[in-house]
Amino acid sequence: xxxxxxxxxxxxxxxxxxxxxAFGLAAPAAAxxxxxxxxIEWIIPFSAGGGSDxxxxxxxxxxxxxxxxxxxxxxxxxPGGGSTKGTNLFAxxxxxxxxxxxxxxxxxxxxxxxGDPRVRYEYKDWKIAMAAPTGGVVYTSPSxxxxxxxxxxxxVGKDLVxxxxxxxxxxxxxxxxxxxxxxxxxxxxxxxxxxxxxxxFERGETxxxxxxxxxxxxxxxxMVDAGTAVPLFSWGVLDEAGNIVRxxxxxxxxxxxxxxxxxxxxxxxxxxxxxxxxxxxxGFPAQKMVFLPxxxxxxIVATYQAAFEAMKSDPDYEKDAASVLGTYPQVTGKLxxxxxxxxxxxxxxxxxxxxxxxxxxxxxxxxE
Length: 368
Prior knowledge:
- There is one protein chain.
- This protein has helices spanning 2-17, 19-22, 51-66, 84-93, 106-114, 172-181, 194-202, 213-226, 256-264, 271-283, 298-311, 315-325, 333-343, 348-362; strands at 39-44, 72-77, 100-104, 127-132, 136-140, 160-163, 185-188, 208-212, 230-234, 237-238, 244-245, 288-292.
- The protein is an alpha/beta fold.
- The strands form 4 sheets. A 5-stranded mixed β-sheet has the order 2-1-3-12-4.
- It starts with a helix and ends in a 6-residue tail after the last helix.
C-alpha cells in the first residue's frame, strides 16, 4: 500500500504544484454564448460563512464580469447532509443551459468516494469548469492552556470537542489526523458547514476546529489576533516528491507532519497515516471544483473556462486573491480535468480500510 501511495502522492503533487506553470497554455476558445439579461445560480451545498461560501463569493462578481453578457451571478447556499443535499438537488434539477453551476468541496467528494448511501450524484456525469486547490489550519482554544503551536503536547489526554459535518465529509481529514495523533476527540456530527463549526467554537461549545484557508484568513485570523484562538498546524501541501511540507500560505505554521513529530517525537507512518494521506490528497490538492450539469454543450463549458481563466488577470483578482484564497492557483482545462479525476478516485483497499474503521469506531455504516 505504501508504494502505491508514494506514486499517488507524486502524481497528486505534480497536479497541484504544476498548476501555475501549466497554465501558460491557453484556455479553450469560447463559442458565441451570451448570457445577457440572465441570472446564474451558483449552488454551494454548505451554509454561509465557511470556506466554500467564501471562495464562491470572492469569485462570483469576477465571473459575472467575464462571462459574455455580464449576467448576474448569485451564490445560493443549499446546506445539509454533509453537502449531499444541495448536490443531489443540482444533479436532479439543473438544466444544461449554463444557468446553474455547482461548487463542490472535499466534503462532497468524500461521501461519493466512500459509497455513502445519501449520494444521488455521479461526478463523471458533469463537466468541470474550474478547480481550486486549497489548504486548511487547525486551531484550538486558549482555555486549554496553549499559547503557541509548540505547546501541542498539552492536548494529550484532554477532552477535545470538534464540530463535524459528518464522518464522510471533508471533516474525515481531521478525524483521521486527530486519531493518528492519539488525541481524545468527541466528534459531534450533524453541522451543516464549516462556518457552523466555527460559530460553535466561538460560542465555546467546542475547543478544537479547522477551517479551509479562505475561511481561516477571513474569520479565524482575527480571532488569533485577538487572543481567542491558538493555531496549531496547517494540513500542509505536497511537494514535488510527494511529501507533506509547510503550506506557503501559512509559512510560520508547522505542517501536520511537523506537528505530529513535535507531539510524538517520530515521523508518522503506517496504515493509519497512509489512509490520512489518501484522503488529504483527494480533499485538498483537488478540493474545490466548479461543475456544469450533464449534457451541457461544449461551447458553454468553454465559455465558462475562458471566463474563469480571464478573470485571473483582473486587477481586483490579482490584488485580493492571495489574502482571500491563499497562495493556491485556480485552474481550468486539462489540469482541472486531471485534478477532477484525482479528487474523485480512490483505491478500493483504502476505501475498505476507512469504511471499516468508521463502522467500528463511530458506528457509521456505509452502503456497499
